[in-house]
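Sorry to interrupt, but I need a hand with the structure work. It will help me judge whether the discrete encoding reads sensibly. Write everything out right here, beneath this request:
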Amino acid sequence: MEPSQVAIIGSGLIGRSWAMVFAAGGFKVKLYDIAQQQLTSALENIGKQMKELEESGFLKGTLSAEQQLALISICTDLKAAVEGATFIQVNPPYFVPLVEIVPHPETDPSTIERTYSLMKKIGQSPVKLNREIEGFVLNRLQYAVISEAWRLVGEGVISPTDLDLVMSDGLGMRYAFIGPLETMHLNAEGISNYCERYREGMRLVLNTFGSVPEFSGEIEQKINQAMSEKIPVVPKVLDARRKRRDEYLTGLAKLKKQMKSD
């Protein structure tokens, strides 16, 4: 039987985002939190976001913002929130569709498959991990990039703002559409040919990587100063930049969807 109702535990940023994702997929959503005022505020925020997304043409799903909002109810009683729910989601969001599904050794394989199918049904991009690992996959890849970025700035190779440009106008352009392994495959006559050509060069560069940074001290101050000059640490400025970031992500998601359907 297809699930028709989900329970979201927590109405913070992540909980609100998941509520919007499931409502866009046509599911009834019970949003739980311990404080009524928090829930009321969350529902108002969701309604505002949906309206803005609809007006900009970025609202997910086939239902209107009003119809999607009507699918979301709020609840301060945990037992009542999960009653009748066939899936309970605790975390990630609306603008980045990736979902890492990580099984416990005792997880029934059918649970993994149901979760995978549900994520696909609501428009997410699920991936299955074969086992638990510290940091999961996305964070491990992200931390590898952050670590080398920190070292490059710390060693005076490049400025913080130019480092970000290398990613946003360089690697990020490519990786928004294909991953590192497919990139290797396409940049030569397949993976084996790529390794034959570049393994020594890659190993030579990788052996120059330093130790894991402390993410503190003078380098932290240097990067913080550069980022603060670019984007002042003022709530209004940060919120505006985050909104712009989400607009970029939504536009990119829409472009990718259009390209896949062509």
Notes: Strands lie at 5-9, 28-32, 72-75, 87-89, 98-101, 125-128.
